[in-house]
Amino acid sequence: MANRPSFDHRIARASELVAAYPASAQVLNFYIAIARYQKALYGFIQQAQKSSGHRPSAIDYRPFADSLDTALLLPRFAGFLNVVKDNAPRPLASIAEQRVADSAGCETLLRNFWQRSESENLPDADAFFARAFLQPYAEFVAERTPAPAQTGNTATCPICESEPVVGVLREENLGAKRSFICSLCSYEWDFLRAMCPGCGEDRSDALATFVAEEFHHVRVEACDTCKVYMKTVDLTRNGLAIPVVDELATLPLTLWAEEHGYTKLQPNLMAV
Questions:
Q1: Model's pTM, two decimal places?
Q2: How far, CA to CA in Å, does 87 sit from each of 41, 92, 95, 126?
Q3: Which domain holds residue 124?
């Protein structure tokens, strides 16, 4: 697995892209506020694990789905919701404010999302709250989980079974190999370059690619069989890119895909 960019690197890259792509500034600035909270939460989780004296906890020796420590995380959820309330667009901010007063419902939300129980039926706002809040903990768990054996081409994360949020192209043997980054735990795994992660389509005439001039290192990769698409960040064209951040900045590519009838395999952290 490639090294995961630190939260500091993600925040710095997002700040650079605000200046480069003003049309995406609102999304990127909101992401920066969320990423700053995620950085603080990740540090809190690290410190809590150290303070435990490495006694066995929910993180240790359990399958990913059973590793959620709500006793550790739930007291921090209201603080996260307040960050959303202070920085999100008004409709989402209002929902976050309502959620602050519902502690019992919050625990159910986080647990169901983590265990993928009814997570597909969650309202968009609740799915965003759960994913953005739990992501630092998921990354912490994934870093301590033994790397899974690569068996075939799995379109879902081998660690937590979530969908990939973005593809990555890296130079390898005079060419470029493709990998995916998980939308929850940020684990990265290899995937065939010419195959649709939505339906497994591998006929070249059914796989479409679109690149816009202003985003020369990011492409839309779409499937005309299942009408699913995802974006791929080409690090051979821009080695400074951070895929999960650069993907956020390319809103015109999202609009192009939607106008052509494609549906995103997995919305990004900002739900676009």
A1: 0.93
A2: 17, 9, 13, 16
A3: 7-143
